[in-house]
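On to my pick:
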Amino acid sequence: MGAISNEEIECIENIIEFNKPSNCLEIGVASGWSSGQILKSLQKFTPESTLVGIDFLDYCYWDRTIPVGKYVHSLDYYYKEKYSLFTEHHILSVKEHLENHFEPFDFLFIDANHKHPFPCVDLLFCLSILKETKAIVVLHDINLPFINPQFPSHGVNHLFYELKDCMKFESVSNEFKKSNLGVLFFDFDIYSKQEVAAQLENIIKKFPIEAELSQEYIDRINRRDYGIK
């Protein structure tokens, strides 16, 4: 848990360089350090691209005096022009707005609540706003409980290693000698969004719940109401 490392920044930059995403979404912003690195990579390789950030809080989870996205606000105007931030929101509360005002996303960075089943749920409810053909999903802290045992949150680990309907890549840290950044490459012409959703449902059910979902999430999952066409 914490800021992405220099090695992880380099990995994200390489992904952006070779795939050149046009519309990016980040769930879990905190200080905005990772947001700033994504924006810098976009400016370097695909300058017309944009980034949207969502965070459940309006302050950093580790320090109430630091506003969410502070680092981005310290950057030049160019970066701020390409950036939209929604604080005190989760994916369900802002999803309709994203559908109505933004093009589908082809790059998603998830670094929010790491407790199971939240990472699976974040991806599950993002499927309908990802591009219809291909999308890249980057997950931070895939081995968090093994690198930092004081944070026993297995949600990202379960999501990355259990999901099968995609290609995967791990960025191994020289510091920890273990990967902590995972990348999922989805081709929805091969495995449909419905198939991915079914796998996510199975992962949610397979492992012990580490944090309770709101009733709204539970009801939508029970109805399989994900907005996937």
Remarks:
- The CA atoms of residues 10 and 106 lie 19 Å apart.
- Residues 6-180+188-208 form a domain with the Rossmann fold fold (CATH 3.40.50.150).
- The longest helix spans residues 6-19.
